[in-house]
Write a sequence for this structure.
């Protein structure tokens, strides 16, 4: 109890966590609702309010997504059929990224060819958004737009297995 009380003074003095910050402490992620003398309240994306001792803010590893800015990287992975020109996929990834309203142009979006999977060529789009509060919706919107762009380009956006029967 004394540790929580002392931590209640240390945390505000260091100014590393404030009400409104998006944080992850242990297995809990959400927004800091309130900072008290002994406890802090975090509201999760699911709507739960988790009340945690301030000592955990000092002793445990804390990820603060909003400490220095509101930027958040969003990654979208996709596999495409073998035989698809990688340059075409990379161009599509960048075009989709640049067209999305929540994607920042600085830092610039990045499209990567990650390698050869068991049944697909593996790519990833990495973009930044200034809206840490809607990064999941941004990721979903990018995936939907990417699927539409791949369909329009007649690129198969899913793992594909080829089975060959050998006559003996």
């Amino acid at each position: 109890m004394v540790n929580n009380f002392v931590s209640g003074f240390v945390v505000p003095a260091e100014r590393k966590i404030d009400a409104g910050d998006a944080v992850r402490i242990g297995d809990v992620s959400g927004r800091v609702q309130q900072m008290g003398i002994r406890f802090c309240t975090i509201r999760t994306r699911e709507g739960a309010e988790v009340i945690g001792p301030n000592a955990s803010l000092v002793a445990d590893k804390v990820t603060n997504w909003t400490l220095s800015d509101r930027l958040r990287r969003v990654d979208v992975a996709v596999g495409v059929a073998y035989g698809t020109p990688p340059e075409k996929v990379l161009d599509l990834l960048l075009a989709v990224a640049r067209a999305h309203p929540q994607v920042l142009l600085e830092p610039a979006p990045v499209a990567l060819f990650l390698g050869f999977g068991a049944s697909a060529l593996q790519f990833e789009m990495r973009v930044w958004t200034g809206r840490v509060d809607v990064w999941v919706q941004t990721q979903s919107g990018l995936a939907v737009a990417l699927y539409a762009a791949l369909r329009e380009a007649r690129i198969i956006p899913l793992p594909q297995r080829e089975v060959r029967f050998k006559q003996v």
About this structure: Confidence is low (pLDDT under 50) at residues 1-13. Strands lie at 22-25, 28-35, 39-44, 49-53, 62-64, 72-80, 110-116, 121-129. The chain has two domains: 2-64, 72-152. The helical segments are 2-14, 54-59, 86-99, 135-152.
